[in-house]
Protein: DNA 3'-5' helicase
Amino acid sequence: DGGKRPDYLAGLNPEQTEAVETLEGPVLVLAGAGTGKTRVLTTRIAHILNTGRAFPSQILAVTFTNKAAREMKERIALLVGGAVEGMPWLGTFHSIGVKLLRRHAELVGLSSDFTILDTDDVVRLIKQLIQAEGLDDKRWPAKQFAGMIDTWKNKGLGPADIPEGDARAFANGRGRDLYFAYQARLTTLNACDFGDLLMHPIAIFRKNPDLLKEYHGRFRYILVDEYQDTNTAQYMWLRLLAQRAKGEPQNVCCVGDDDQSIYGWRGAEVDNILRFEKDFPGAKVIKLERNYRSTEHILGAAAHLIAHNEGRLGKTLFTDRADPDDVKVQVHASWDSEEEARAIGEEIEQLQRGKHLLNDMAILVRASFQMREFEDRFVTLGLNYRVIGGPRFYERLEIRDAMAYFRLVAQPADDLAFERIINTPKRGLGDTTVRALHDYARARDIPMLAAAADMIETDELKPKARKALFDVIQSFRRWQELLENTPHTELAEQILEESGYTDMWKNDKSAEAPGRLENLKELIRSMESFESMRGFLEHVSLVMDAETNENLDAVSIMTLHSAKGLEFDTVFLPGWEEGLFPHQRSLDESGRAGLEEERRLAYVGITRAKRRCHIWFVSNRRIHGLWQSTLPSRFLDELPETHVEVAEMEQSYGGYGRGGYGQSRFDKSEPFANSYSTPGWKRAQANRTDATRDNWGTRSGHAVERIGYGESGPKGRTIDGE
Ligand code: ATP
Ligand code: MG
Structure:
């Protein structure tokens, strides 16, 4: 139109410009990391608003996390000069789903004030149903069925759609009936689960074509970020809203990268990329190839690594950022994870002295238990950190439970600890008993544990509760006697075993359970560096007290899964060892596909870095007091030598003794030191004759159980405005 082009378009490259300006018709932007996909979406929205093509309320925009939605809102406001009056339909699939469902709840038999059940509620409800059916809930665990329902819902399958074979898998073929019963029960309760936030809107749109048409009229532009990680239900939902009658505008734009599909384990379907072109004929497919984020070395390393995957759509990536000062990707080896945390802490402090902000640094771990070592170290150093996408290590449910046991042993007057674990695992000591104990303790001004000891002598409690309470008190007495003379790590393990707490998670069939068990092992491990149980408890209270102010300059710690879409000047990637990364469970459960998803995760990790990328592996992990040698990750072998260099290892071996730290430590490690004195992961590997890729051996040659690491995906799902 000859007018001045708005500023926000000025910096875009031709392909990006095309993606922003092709506002009519379906558009698929398929491009590698850091090529500006998210920026294209944001600019596109700004452009739509700026040219008056739609009001903010007529744009439907989907992001992968709530955080990403907030950031996108802020950026749009900047681009259009703050004139955006909100964007009511910008959010995650779930948050938009809630909004739709609140409006039309009555169409699926709910009222608009329905409640959204969390995982615990769901499991409790299913358990009731299983029992009501006269089934044995030990043989058919509620958690397992909750997992099946979740999987079905990710695939967009309601009870009526359950294939014969699938239904037979649970409760001798009664899975389907149970699923029906579950949905009916939810309706009676005026409640829904997470999956329903998509399933209900899908049902509503299918049954009410007129209403769907109304929404077609409303949503003039539809945009989706991180499209490669949509699952089938999300795709169905999207297609309903985006696919229009012939002649009507289908202004839908999805951006994604098949190489960054990392949620297959949660039902994401990378094939949705291929479906798009089929379902939206004439879609314009735009490729972006210039990376604006990373140095040539970082990009080269990432590209070479991901080229080892077979199932790829194939893309090229290049950058103009070739600065002779750019450093290669650095690979470091450490003796063990404690030293790894120490070395990374040093590196961070050094960057800090060079005036780099902590905000520009991130540590990305494969499994959440790895965070513990960094948190401990940073508290010791006084380095600010924040954990993104999940609780801090010592704030996790299973860690808090375990700590409550330890506290109560060391400090019998700790009533909060008592209340937390008295019925965890379940012992038939429900609210009534706890209330009675509470009242008794209050009336006499004594701790609840003491009250419990008193009350079992009376007949104020039901016989069953009395018996259970008697057993618990006996256990605590025993543990308290052991406190002074048993090594505290041993005692801690004993407590978790004898209390039934470890078994509780072993019997738990949910996806989180293995990770929780791994965290518990890590907790025991973390106690090793303390003299006593009390010393350890004190340390934890200090860590828990550490500042977590959002505005503070702080290093970010998060899982690789939650790092998607983010970028940092410096990225640290610890724990690149076989079994941890690639993760053993992924390999066991999904074979080659699992390995490729792990490799994509590695690609996501490296491509988060703008200027510096440090990869670490350790030679030993110490588990239950046993040294286990580990193998460097195969992904390290897949990095190109031209873009990678092996960092000097003097930190790791000998002469490191800062503040006298080194001495005792390396005395311990003396027998193994030889295999470790030469830099280079390849050398480290060659020196290791006593372990193979598939089987982790110990130095002493004993067989050791395969270590199952925790899954690292974001656990708590939250919804904006709920
Ligand atoms: P990912 O796949 O990791 O989500 P992405 O493709 O979404 O990456 P963006 O996050 O949008 O990439 O962009 C990466 C970085 O490059 C950002 O800092 C962004 O501001 C910058 N960038 C993108 N396009 C341009 C451009 N045309 N000029 C300058 N910087 C750009
Ligand atoms: Mg992005």
Q: What stands out?
A: The two ends are 44 Å apart (CA to CA).
